[in-house]
Each structure stands twice: as structure tokens, then as C-alpha cells.
Design a protein that fits this description.
Two copies of one chain form a homodimer. Helix content of chain A is about 25%, strand content about 30%.
């Protein structure tokens, strides 16, 4: 089976609030939007922000609010970018949940939650190459 | 800022149990593994399965068990593949949470939770092209 994820969908309470976080904080541009969903074309897949109730109904299960056991990471090209991005995200409605520091494996990273509590790691990891299309390769 | 997600990390209780779900169920091959983390090279980013306690400690916050308000999707090339993949995932330790049917926007999809409750949508969406490297494009 193809080693492929097509979509990551985050359930959100308010598309207006979330649009600000993703468009102003990250500076990303939506590729599609209607009254209950926003899609972003990412590096080889699609990120969706979907009304939380609609996502739960589609999935056919209750979804807890707050922070589930997962995280999404955005890697930046320079160490100094980590703090700059975290500050922008905080200004755009995010909350810093871990100040940036050096993890045991090296590099530099901090965590910000989006307005719905989804965990975003902002990381500088010089070992993992990122090409001009944003495609990220595992490397040790 | 680059419109890019580098890593999706799912917190798991048991790497052995999760390895079975992802390697046997999806048929994916890990690119790296140690006693607390498994990485898969995906279509332009990396999927990590990380010991849930270590992920929570790294993130600096408590993480609830069960199902947060998000879902990850794997799109398949043919409508008939949806049920076949869901069955394989269920045999490999997943649980079918929504039987496959046609959503309002068309296509065909069902949902399976992985052994830790992470929601996976298995979808046939003929509108969204997937290239041979697994890169998925938004389209209407």
C-alpha cells in the first residue's frame, strides 16, 4: 500500500479564529474555503480545518476537546526562526506551551498550541533536509 | 513561511502493538526505530509513533487519552480498496468506527481507529490526484 497520508484534519470551534492563526501566524494561504471547512495545500498532502462538530459527525464518534496525544511539527530553516515563528503564532491567537530549548537529540524546538489546543512543534532540525517544495526527508 | 508540515507524531502506549497496525495493517515500512520511537518516511513528511509519555513530556503538557478532535486520512486509488484496507487495519488491531459509505461531497470513505484511538479515514476521492510518489493535490 502506498506510504501516504492524504489529509490531516483538525477540528476547530471557530473558522475565523483559526484562519487568523494559520494565515497570519504561519502566513499560509488557503486553497479552498466555505462556511465549515478551510483547506491548505501542503507539502504533498492537504491540511483541513473543519468545524469540530461536523468532523465528529463524519467520523461517527465523540471527540474530546483539548489536547489529544499527538503533535504536528513545522520545521524552520534556521535556529533563530524558531522563536520568531512561535512569537508570531502567539500573536495570532496561539499559546506557547513549551519555551524553545534543545532536546536530547539536538536541534532546537518549542511548542505552541493553536486556538483549539492542537499542539504544534516549531523546530530547527538541521539533520532533516527540506527541499524547495517543502518535502521533508528523514535522516540521522 | 513555507507551507509545510515536517512531522505528524502520534502518541502510543505500545510500540509493538502500533508497529503491527502500521506495518501489517497499512503495509508501511519504518525508516528508523528505537525503543521509544518509530519513524515512517511519508509523502513529503515524516510520521512518528512515539511513546505517549515521552511525547507529553517533550510537549510540556498533559495529553488526554482517546480521541482528540482530529483525523488523518489515507486515500486509496479505487473505491473497492476502501473496505479492503479497513478490513486489514481491523485485523491488525484497529477498530472500525464508521462503516464505509458515501459522504455528501461524493467519493467513499470509512473510519478506523488505531490501537490508541487515533482516527484514520480511509477514503476514495477520485477528484484529488495522487502522483506516484504519493503526493496529494487538492482539487474541486
Amino acid at each position: 500500500m502506498q506510504q501516504q497520508i492524504s489529509v490531516i484534519t483538525l477540528g476547530v470551534e471557530s473558522l475565523i479564529r483559526s484562519r487568523k492563526f494559520y494565515e497570519v501566524g504561519f502566513g499560509w494561504k488557503a486553497v479552498f474555503e466555505n462556511e465549515e471547512i478551510i483547506f491548505f495545500q501542503m507539502n504533498g498532502f492537504v491540511l483541513g480545518l473543519w468545524d469540530k462538530g461536523s468532523l465528529a459527525a463524519d467520523t461517527g464518534r465523540e471527540m474530546t476537546s483539548g489536547c489529544g496525544a499527538y503533535a504536528v511539527a513545522h520545521n524552520v530553516p534556521e535556529k533563530n526562526d524558531v522563536q520568531a515563528v512561535m512569537d508570531r503564532l502567539a500573536e495570532a491567537g496561539g499559546q506557547i506551551i513549551r519555551e524553545a530549548d534543545t532536546p536530547p537529540q539536538g536541534g532546537f524546538r518549542g511548542y505552541v498550541s493553536d486556538p483549539d489546543g492542537h499542539s504544534w512543534e516549531i523546530a530547527w532540525n538541521p539533520a532533516w533536509p527540506i527541499d524547495e517544495d517543502g518535502h521533508v526527508k528523514f535522516a540521522v
